[in-house]
UniProtKB/TrEMBL annotation:
Belongs to the calcium channel subunit alpha-2/delta family. Keywords: Calcium, Calcium channel, Calcium transport, Disulfide bond, Glycoprotein, Ion channel, Ion transport, Membrane, Metal-binding, Signal, Transmembrane, Transmembrane helix, Transport, Voltage-gated channel. PANTHER family: VOLTAGE-DEPENDENT CALCIUM CHANNEL SUBUNIT ALPHA-2/DELTA-RELATED, VOLTAGE-DEPENDENT CALCIUM CHANNEL SUBUNIT ALPHA-2_DELTA-4. It comes from the Eukaryota. This is VWFA domain-containing protein. Residues 1-74 are annotated as: Disordered.
Length: 1180
């Protein structure tokens, strides 16, 4: 499936002899044909060239022929001078090619000199030999140990199990307290009660007095809560704008839930690693601890409704199979269809990855909205739900509605799924969305659902008409469902939520407190989301929630199965993954978590964000990325299957990895170790890279000796690693990791919990690397010996320790960001080792590699002013016949320094002795006749005469030479895949030709838009944008559930293939001639010894761009035909079902099946919402 360069017409590589000349051509000592002498300009002696490159005295006519030369009818010179002209032009053309013979021995000579000079510079200024010698001296006191992956993965999983278990205990205490508080509270419909409304707290009116429900609420920034201002002594309450904040049910619920305040604080004291704790009420309010100031959206409203959240829905119900049946007959036109679509989308939003779904539309025949899903259920993951929304948006009304066929089809699907063991194997329901049922379809239910009534029916009567309401209600009430009437868009949310309460009845009556864990999600409600996007590793921005339902224990309502709400707590996955320390995984090792459905919770290759313009946004499918889409080398999905089943084991795979923004490929052998985390639906995996990744060396030094060197000003340790746990005791949160380590070792903070193994290794590394501090200082003191352009020397060890010295001041330094806290790529972070460390590990120890960091396409510096070069190499330690990687050391240089070196070396003065040179002599890279490049082992240009080309892939600059190097095998292409790509769709789902049908279409569309929006404006009371949700936390970004989203040319999830290139180190040199139309291009490529560089000298005056297109690293979308795409979407991979299912209880009161004549916004609710929005707009 790899991408291969296409053959180019007219482009071919001539066959060269052993001296780089065309076979059959003999050259003299200067590289010219025998008998032909060249002058100082490389032209035959006696031949003078004019300004157009032609021999003087030779004038060309308009057709490119010498003037005075008459052509016959076939284009040949007439007369007896034909032979003379042929001889003349053959000789002229031949001499033009011969003058561009580039001597390979000259290029080789330059490469050797450059190698020596680079080696001397990097070795001297880095101190690599000093460090390697010091490591040699301590080999007798160290021990190299093999990492036992099986034991390590088990230890990590047990630590995670203990951590997650403590969170579950906290949630259980909240649930018990909430149920007791409700049990002893008597409902008071006249209750008046002031509470802290999180939207209104600390809000004053014009007179400086706090507004109602907006009293003084002390807030203080807290590092544990992402530096948000919080109140750890009090919770507060958020009420959605579409819920009346003084409704009797709201006030009573808020009143008795005040009892949770003490439990929140006690939980936090028992487990200081807890983050947000909360209670989401079934009536709509949301109590959160610690208390915060809620930030409204741009319309001044609080669109967040806890009942829409996945943690609430999963905790409130068991897994379910849902068939949505929607009426699209002619009677559903206009606003009815708009409401119906919104109802479908809202139902879809209540589903999760443990649920299964399909959507059927009906008129006088049954139509699957996705024909691919005919007769089956598909997992309700994010991809499928959003796919359904797109298709539902395109539904159009027509014909007569005949619901019986659709009902029968729905029952068949559900019965077949249950028979075959497919779907959720738990709750089953049909959602009928229609403007009326003309009959009760008793015969259908007798055939498919009675007497067991295993499938519940929920009916949604759309529109203001009530003509067929009785039949619609009868269908629901006689099939253990619920009937609702939806007359406006504003009614949709509350009415859809009713089905969740019905499905929760068996669980509530049984009083089963099932603990649920959600898939990974990104909580963009919090006000500092953008800062988190910019500063944290993408794969660790996510969190999971542990939640538990809260039931009414009052005896009088037991058969009704009343759900009071859901309690929960967030667990940042960053904190979970810290329990698998980086230093025990190695430079290319990593840990990851997946769910029971095979979706990723945490993985270093998970990229949940994408960039649109300058804005980072969550991808639409960011939390439904399957393990197989990241570990794509596991073609048979052996790893995924075993982990989903909850097994423990190992697997080895040869993989193609990549670093430096996925532009530099690596071939690795990974050993995978995996196990399950008990009492959760999660499985944990760990990777150790074969070889150096599975070896660690241990050294011992005294605390006193280590402390002395640990306090050196040039030393730092990773502040994202956990050397000591500073988050348990609030008093410790003010310390950096280095400060905490030092205070612990000094005995000033004995209560700190520290990683003793990591501390011992850090102390040892500090002592071993200490001589570098004085060595670097000595170089700096010898000012006369300092070379301009060497800016920073640095080293790093596996313990996360970094030493560095700055040879130049910040004012003159080119790489101002390098190794600063903002330079995440080059530091030890929670999810990766520095780039320079990882690259050094995959190259022979002692051999420096050179590279310029790959720049983002949007931030590329075309001037080259800010570009710099990094040189790095690995250092090793040996003991007991084993060799382990001790760390990496290197220097950072300015680009200008390397350029000066190369241009000085690659220059032959005019008095050069050219006696034994075969080809152009003297030769210089400064000449306009040739282009010279210094290119690294991945094909990126490090030095070029054109600064704008530096850092770019060489194939983009010269596709002809790169194609020849790939063909010769000097560079090998590596095909890589990205199943998390984002591609521009370039089209809309609707017909792009439609505007051409009528010149008045545009005007009609505008008029239609105006009146439809005006109508909905009046029907919804939507004066303040009540129903818009700009920051719904799940992946609704880009897919608005109420209104049509603009999808033209939008970025959509896609699969892509992209190339990477690697130098074959066994090929040291190559040269060739490329035939490009009327000219031939010669190039010579020579490897620079003891480095990862090659020196290229290329003829400059032969343009091959017509014959060879550029070779880029741009990803190409992998296109799938319709059948493949269909199979991928509906395929049901191996998954582990949740252990519990609550679908039936004999005491359930099925008569409570709805029937309110109309459920809509009350005048009080409307006025309250309007007043709240106006107040917020005025005072915020």
């Amino acid at each position: 499936m790899g991408l291969r360069p296409r053959a180019r017409s007219g482009g071919e590589i001539n066959r060269l002899g052993p001296r780089g000349t065309p076979t059959g051509l003999r050259l003299g000592p200067r590289g010219t044909p025998t008998g032909l002498r060249l002058g100082p300009r490389g032209t035959p002696t006696g031949l003078r060239l004019g300004p157009r490159g032609t021999p003087t005295g030779l004038r060309l006519g308009p057709r490119g022929t010498p003037t005075g030369l008459r052509l016959g009818p076939r284009g040949t010179p007439t007369g007896l001078r034909l032979g003379l002209w042929i001889l003349c032009f053959s000789w002229f053309c031949f001499t033009a090619h011969a003058q561009m013979k580039i001597p390979p021995e000259t290029v080789q000579f330059w490469a050797n000199i450059l190698s020596v000079q680079l080696r001397e510079t990097t070795t001297r200024y880095s101190g690599a030999n000093i460090l390697q010698k010091k490591l040699k001296d301590v080999e007798s006191i160290i021990k190299i140990v093999d990492i036992d992956g099986r034991d390590q993965v088990r230890d990590f999983a047990e630590d995670m199990e203990r951590m997650l278990g403590s969170k579950m205990k906290s949630v259980k205490r909240l649930a018990e307290s909430a149920e007791d508080a409700d049990l002893y509270h008597d409902f008071n419909k006249t209750l008046e009660f002031d509470y802290y409304n999180s939207m209104l707290v600390n809000t004053a009116d014009e007179d400086g007095n706090f507004i109602e429900l907006g009293g003084e609420f002390p807030l203080e920034k807290n590092k544990h809560f992402n530096n948000l201002p919080v109140n750890t002594q009090q919770s507060d309450v958020q009420v959605p704008t579409n819920v009346y904040n003084k409704d009797a049910y709201i006030l009573n619920g808020i009143y008795w839930s005040e009892a949770l305040n003490d439990v929140f604080m006690n939980n936090f004291q028992k487990d200081p690693t807890l983050t947000w704790q909360y209670f989401g009420s079934s009536s709509g309010f949301f109590r959160i601890y610690p208390g915060i100031k809620w930030t409204p959206d741009s319309n001044g409203v609080a669109a967040f409704d806890c009942r829409n959240r996945n943690w609430y829905i999963q905790a409130a119900t068991s897994p379910k199979d849902i068939i949505i049946v929607v009426d699209i007959s002619g009677s559903m036109k206009g606003l009815k269809m708009t409401i119906a679509k919104h109802t479908i989308n809202t139902i879809l939003d209540t589903l999760g990855e443990n649920d299964f779904v399909n959507v059927i539309a009906y008129t006088d025949y049954v139509r699957y909205v996705e024909p691919c899903f005919k007769g089956t259920l598909v997992q309700a993951d994010l991809d499928n739900r959003e796919h359904f929304k797109v298709l539902v948006d395109e539904l159009h009304v027509k014909g007569e509605g005949k619901v019986a066929k659709a009902m029968k089809e729905s029952f068949k699907i559900l019965n077949e799924a249950a028979t075959k063991g497919q779907g959720s194997l738990c709750n089953q329901a049909i959602m009928l969305i229609t403007d009326g049922a003309m009959e009760d379809f008793k015969d259908v239910f007798e055939e498919f659902n009675w007497p067991d009534r295993r499938v519940r029916l929920f009916t949604y009567l759309i529109g203001r008409e009530m003509t067929f309401a009785d039949n619609t209600k009868w269908i629901a009430c006689n099939n253990k469902g619920y009937y609702t009437h939806i007359s406006t868009l504003a009614d949709v949310q509350e009415n859809v939520m009713e089905y969740l309460h019905v499905l929760s009845r068996p669980m509530v009556i049984n009083h089963n407190h099932d603990i649920i864990w959600t898939e990974a999600y990104m909580d963009t409600v919090l006000p500092n989301t953008k800062e988190l996007f910019a500063t944290k590793a993408q794969s660790l921005l996510l969190m999971t929630t542990v939640a538990m339902p809260v039931f009414s224990k009052k005896k009088e309502t037991l058969s009704h199965g009343i759900l009071l709400g859901v309690v929960g707590s967030d667990i940042p996955l960053l904190e979970v993954m810290k329990l698998a320390p980086r230093y025990r995984l190695g430079p290319h090792g990593y840990a990851f978590l997946i769910t029971n459905n095979g979706y990723i919770l945490a993985h270093p290759d998970l990229r949940p964000l994408y960039k649109e313009g300058k804005t980072l946004k969550p991808k639409p499918n960011y939390n439904s990325v399957d393990l197989a889409e990241v570990e794509w080398e596991d073609i048979d999905e052996i790893l995924r299957t075993a982990m989903v089943k909850g097994e423990m084991g190992t697997l080895s795979l040869n993989v193609r990895a990549s670093v430096d923004k996925a532009k530099r490929p690596l071939f690795l052998t990974n050993d995978y170790f995996y196990t399950t985390i008990n009492d959760t639906p999660f499985s944990f995996g760990m990777v150790l890279t074969r070889g150096h990744g599975q070896l660690m060396f241990m050294g011992t030094v005294s605390v006193e000796e280590g402390l002395h060197d640990l306090t050196s000003p040039d030393l730092s340790i990773s502040n994202e690693w956990t050397y000591c746990e500073t988050d348990i005791d609030p008093h410790h949160r003010k310390y950096s990791q280095l400060q905490a380590v030092i205070r612990y070792l000094q005995g000033k903070e004995p209560d700190l919990e520290c990683d003793e193994v990591l501390l011992q290794q850090t102390l040892f590394d500090a002592v071993v690397t200490a001589p570098l501090e004085s060595y670097w200082q000595a170089i700096m003191l010898n000012a006369s010996g300092m070379e301009m352009g060497v800016e920073t020397a640095f080293l790093g060890t596996r313990s996360g320790l970094i030493r560095l010295t700055r040879y130049t001041g910040i004012e003159t330094r080119v790489a101002k960001k390098f190794l600063t806290p903002a330079d995440k790529d080059n530091l030890f972070t929670v999810d990766h080792f520095p780039l320079w460390y990882r690259l050094a590990m995959e190259n022979p120890p002692g051999r420096f590699i050179y590279y310029i960091p790959v720049e983002d396409k949007d931030n590329r510096d075309k001037t080259g002013v800010s570009k710099y070069v990094i040189a790095t190499t690995a250092v090793t330690v040996s003991s007991g016949g084993k060799m382990a990687m001790a760390g990496a050391i290197g220097v950072q240089m300015s680009l200008e320094m390397l350029e000066k070196r190369l241009w000085t070396i690659a220059f032959q003065p005019a008095d050069t002795d050219c006696t034994d040179v075969e080809g152009v002599c003297p030769l210089s890279c400064q000449s306009t006749d040739v282009n010279c490049f210094l290119v690294d082992s991945n094909g990126f240009i490090i030095v070029s005469k054109e600064r704008s080309e530096v850092g770019r892939f060489f194939g983009e600059v010269d596709g002809s030479v790169m194609a020849a190097l790939i063909k010769s095998g000097m560079y090998k292409k590596v095909s890589l895949y990205d199943y998390q790509g984002m591609c521009r769709s370039g089209h809309s789902h609707s017909s792009s030709a439609r505007p051409l049908l009528s010149p008045f279409y545009g005007l009609a569309a505008v008029i239609k838009w105006f009146f439809s929006h005006m109508l909905m404006f009046l029907l919804e009371f939507n004066f303040c944008g009540l129903w818009h949700s700009d920051y719904v936390v799940d992946a609704k970004a880009g897919y608005h559930t109420s209104h049509k989203a603009k999808r033209t040319d939008a970025l959509q999830p896609c699969d892509t293939e992209y190339p990477g290139f690697m130098l074959d180190n066994s090929i040291k040199e190559t040269n060739s001639l490329l035939k490009c139309g009327r000219c031939q291009k010669m190039f010579v490529v020579q490897a620079v010894p003891d480095s990862n560089l090659v020196l290229m000298v290329v003829q400059a005056d032969c343009d091959c761009s017509r014959q060879y297109s550029s070779i880029t690293l741009e990803p190409k979308e992998v296109k799938y035909n319709a059948s493949v795409k269909c199979n991928r979407m509906k395929s049901q991979k191996v998954r582990r079902r949740p252990k519990s299912c609550h679908a039936y209880h004999p005491k359930e009161n099925a008569k409570d099946c709805g029937g309110a004549s109309e459920i809509s916004l009350s005048v009080a609710l409307f006025l309250a919402s309007l007043a709240t929005s106006l107040a917020l707009r005025r005072w915020t």
